[in-house]
Queue: 4 jobs
Job 1
Amino acid sequence: MANLGHPNIDLTRFLNESPTHEIDGQRVDAMSLINSVSMISMKLDSNNVEHVKYLTTEGLSKKQRLEFIKKIRDNLGADLFELSTCNRVVYVGFGVDCDELESSVLASTSLDNAPFDRFTGIDVWRQLVKVCSGLDSFMIGELQVMSQFRGSVAWHRKHGLTSDINGSFFDHVISANRVIRREFGFNKTTESMLNLATTALEEVVSKNPHSISVVLGFGEMGCKAVEVLLDLGQTDITVISRSPDESAKRNPETAAKVNIMTLDQWKELDHQPSLIISTIRNTVASYNSSNPIPTTAPAKIMDFSWPPSIDSTGIGANQDLMGMVHWIKIAHKLGVEWDYSSTIEKSELMITEIQQRFMSALTDRTQAKFRSFMYQTLESLSKQWVEYEHAIESAAQLEAFSREIATWLCNQDGPFATDELGNMVLSTDRPINPTLLKRVASDVTETIIRINEKSTLSEVTH
């Protein structure tokens, strides 16, 4: 048989191997995880309002939301993440493509199709960073969406909708969000809808300082609306609640300054408010043609609910409804004052830099792990060499020489022959006994050939 020569060694595949994480004892290829992610989303606008009503979980109880998402997840057969806010819906799938994800979502609604935006791989990460940082919100830099995102991630993990491994993808989104917010100073902003509401209320009250106000709902947004009205000097404020006593207990200080009653009690009154604010959470409009607002007086009606709690068919001809479509238009106008375009342009560059650092960190982690392994392996060999009979005069040199060999191995940028490795060892200027040096060359070559036979870094290091 012809001499085929000595086998070539190529360690670069271990240096360039896709990075891995270890989560709950399981090793995860980070790049494979990222590339397997798909997302469909829809940002609310006047053209897709009807679609979003069927896709959002806003207004559902916790139990209803869980049942809805579990139904989609079971249909999809893969981990699923859902986020609904006042101006968007987001669905993220793992190990599936956008077609599969969209098909499963639509199958759980009464929709045949929907104008989703689609993202895959690292673009999912980029878009979620924009969403969570408030760069894609009604009012740029809003804080509320990040809180909603973190809460949704925790909720999905708690209910087993996303595994810890897939959930780690969102940890990188949250990390990037912190950098963006710190750079732009977004941590000093308030919730977008509250800002819009405050400005609108100030305008209405300035035109009618003695407004008679009704606030529907006394949850978080309802309380804030009442607080704004009180700060503006309003005194005639009525809050409509399903359970007035329970609502009053949640915020007794504010409740003491308003009238709280049930809807039935309000209907019995001869009450003619000039301002109605709705913060009701429900899956369908509470007020429509079959159940109109129980007042026919001229009034400004502000609906801050999503999905909408007041349909245009449920108001009088002399009443002005300011619903979600109105707030979208207002937000777009305010975008000019925020210098929106330049902020977005700057943020795109920043997200790209964070993405590059993120990917480099993953790669560097793999390289560092391999380098560390090589140095430890050669150091272990050096401890064996000092036990050889010819090592008495060379013992002080062997540990340093092992590091020198490891450095040479880690710096190879391509395949090399075993002869090259042997010659590198044998040609050292260090005062090492020649017989021992041959043993060192043999041990190193045998060890590296054995490592070279492994397929992956995990095989090498275990």
Job 2
Amino acid sequence: MAPEIYKWFNKKFPQNFIIKNPFTGTLLIALFVFGFTILYKPLNTHASGALSYEATMGCYSFLSGIFLFLCVRILKTFRYFSDNKDWTIFKEILSVFIVLFILGVAIYLLGFLIEQSKKRWNITTFIGSVEGAFLVGIIPMAFFTVINYRYLFPESSDYEGNIARPGMEIQPPENLIQISSQLKKEELSFYPGEFIYAESDGNYVVFYLNKDNVVKKEIIRNSINNIEQQLSGIPYFLRIHRAFIVNLKKVRSKQGNTLGYLIKLAGPEFKIPVSRKNTRIFNELSALYHS
């Protein structure tokens, strides 16, 4: 059970709109909180001594919005939260929790400016401020999370388990790839979905192709540099090592760190190294094609 839970929490997921767009997102939260409190007067909200109820809620909403905007900007300076392409369900939940907690702290601190401070310096008021932020703020935050629910289900992915992206719901037919050789009478053709990887072997390049669910090895006389140029039109074909070009859609797992990876490809236990200089581009591109 534990591995399944871990896998679920680390599933790729679109970044929350409010985190991805701090200015627009915090403005939406401020407007929502202001409108919600004016209409429903939740959680015993009340006017301050010097301001009307509407003015009090306006001050709380928009001043806490500024506080929240700064919080999100600071949050995104941390490496863990900086890359929206490497976003996961766990990061989504954690970031929402942090944002709402900071919102609660902001409301508590703003109370010292807006209301009578002598009545606020206690743990009960602090907990009440944080609780109010969660109960009201969770509505807009959760909305932008819930609208991406389809990314949690396999049927929302393109073939081979890759996360669906805008414009990819209907896959266009694949075009046949023609690989030329240094020998005039020699050529190789295959569809992108059939390509697993290619490996340099002296003056030759060995192609591993999945044709009719059977892995076949094809050898052609050429350099890996020239083959890389011929395959450059396919965005998910990447040269990850001086001797290897792989189909990122065929990657099943990786081991290692920024010094280099060892990846496993679909097929009979293909294991390919990713060189140190290619780990970053590998992470960035593979995130686009895997859930």
Job 3
Amino acid sequence: MSGARRRARRSSAVVAAAVVLLVAACAPADRTEAVPAGQSDSGGGAPSATVVDPAHAVASPGPLTTRLYGDDLLVVSDHTLDPALVKRIKAVRVGSRKGVTAAEPFSFAQFAVENKTYNIAAIDPSTYRAFTGQSSAAWQEQWDRVAGGEIAVRAGLRKKLPLDEAGYLAVGSGDTTHRIHVGAYSPSAVGVVDAMVNRSWGEELGMPEANALLINTGLASPQKVRAKIEKLADLSITALDIVAQSGIDPDTYQTVIPVGSFRDAIGIYRYTPIGGGRVQPEQSWVSSHITTELMPIIGSMTCNKAMMPQLRAALIEIQQSGLADEIHPGEYAGCYYPRFIAGSTKLSNHSFGLAFDINVPGNQRGVPGEIDRGVVAIFKRWGFAWGGDWSYTDPMHFELSRIVKPG
């Protein structure tokens, strides 16, 4: 592989784990079942906090006893990393110096909420914590809550991720969306992981087992270690020091591995940032997932193939209901548009061709919107979520919420 292509195929959608203040919904009154001191339903040590989700609880990690490590490189594959390859990565040397001081395997994937894609890690709380910084690693309550089946979320997302009244976050997509109680907001982050759960939840969410590796390079240069690993396999390798500075490693390719029932609609989405907030998916993905069709009312639309049947059915019903004039073809703003959300490094659902914008004038962000509510109701019946329902409102925006098969 040429150096240019290697640089273009480098690293993956990222890691950054989190926890700083317990959410109000985590108060003991919200607890559903307690695990008595000295006992554990998973056969390990007893959790110090009451367990919110016994069905997904694992052994308490116990107090911090290991040394702490920095987070230098994130290696991601779209499937479980071969143990033999992991062994070779751990053995990498830079000259006479050991290149990998410590390496932590975990599962890595993505979920979308209100048109934004977030990175989620399924981890072993007892060992992953050593890579998260002093304040995070030493906060025992955080790791007990993750072990007890709750989700820990990056502190910066506290006011951005929508929770229900009981403090639960919807994780997944379509018919396989799960409610997970938010137990903590993290003060420090590994790379750009937005949320972390335990391995029991990782299995429930269908995340690939141990498809990621967090690496500390010790005294060796992370860039030199990355160059060595690149020679072993075609993997996505993110330099986390660059991520800490700019939010993304531009000299990489990145990978989206969606959780939930939309996985078939999205597949494995590899892309490269190309500047100006745009991203470039692999051409093979575009060819297999994106199509252009002439649709009722709007005309030519370029969207995800998996969404087209129910979108066509919704537009036909709108037409048959006498509401066609409520959609203005000249004010249609597109469907498939591979890009980040403005001012961020979060992918929009437009990147996957799973969202479309209509009647743009009068339906800008932050307003109730002028779209006919009969039109909205029909789109909802056909499996589309409406941005006008969101806390920040985006009434021009509709996106796939669930798969609905016509007839």
Job 4
Amino acid sequence: MKFWLLLTSLLCSPLTALAKDTLVILSPHRKSIQEEYVPLFTEYYKKTFKTDVQVEWLDQGGTSDDVRFMRAKFGSNPKTSGVDIFWGGGTATFSELQQDNFLASYKLPAALKAQIPEKAAGISLYDKSQTWYASAMSSFGVFFNKKIMKLDGLSEPKTFQDLGKPEYRDSISLTDPRRSGSANTMNIIIIQTLGWEKGWELLTAIAGNTRSFTHSSSDPIKAVVAGDVAMAMAIDFYALAKIGDLGPSNLGFVLPQGQTVLDPDPIAILKGAPNRKVAERFVDFVLSVDGQKLLLLPKGAEGGPVKSSLGRMAANTKAYELTEGKRIDAYNPFKQQSLVKLELGQAVKMQRVFNDLIGALLIDTHEDLKKAWTKVSKGQKAVDPAKLAALGKAPLTEAEFNALVDKWDDELVRNNTIKTWVTFAKQKYAAAK
């Protein structure tokens, strides 16, 4: 009898108020996103739903690593990964996740859905099956240190093509696209806007000017801020966040004319999410006006981030209305005409083999490339077109590349082909030297 009295007392005691809801998020987003959104969400959750929520934030190192993690999780249990939310990585990543049948459908509340248009500048902000929604939008350009460029006598870049100029040799830092979804997207932009042959020429020239390839998308940004390099290709929010904190007199960012792409950065609930209701509430919060204002406002502004500026484009139109004249960047994607649109299906299909080709030609043979590039570009204002064509030649045509994509799951084919590409690269760089 005493046991049951004790049990009843415990169940009815104030200790039950300490019971927490749980949410597990997998995200490649940088730490500043986590530091701003998690505390505000837990505060909002307690106030709105009268209970605490415990948020577990997982990050495997980058977008590609997170996707591999998901595949491993669902591979061991097809019904659930044990994770509730996948957040960040661009639409190409979410198309992959959708094709793998990892995403769950979710219909937003009507009032919130009214604030998220179907499109911005011709770009879809959510999937028709409502498995993912744009939590923000991103574009890609060139981030540069104005003081270092002035000190080195370098002209400010205006396009991606500028990054191939000999004057920028050893002044650039880039990320290995095999570890970064944003780096992959920027390379695809160059190929799709310039075409296969000219695209590879430019990618080769930029790699020749690159001091190093990093594993993290944030490392080139840090290098530019520290003055270790003058510039980097960058996703807009990395650049704008630093400009918001350190000022436009020190740092600059330019969207390349004719190559400006708007890429939604989605959020989705995963299939078999163990905390489905909490996951729905988190999606609603991220897309709400309060959640979206964190992206637009500078650090310290009312309703803005507390620790650091995030410098992102929002997906909620009302958030733009309420932050007019207060944002880090006045740019409003909902007031733009149609921009460059990536062939997303092709981009997703080609991603693995394309990144392996980039790795073989530009990264794993980078020292050979740099020596060859120095030989053909030193003392030149522009590289001879014939020499650039030879240096930037790909080992296969675009048609041959597309045919190879379907065979890439065969590890024997993949490994042997990569070895062939590395040999090809070393031979052409040796010939240039």
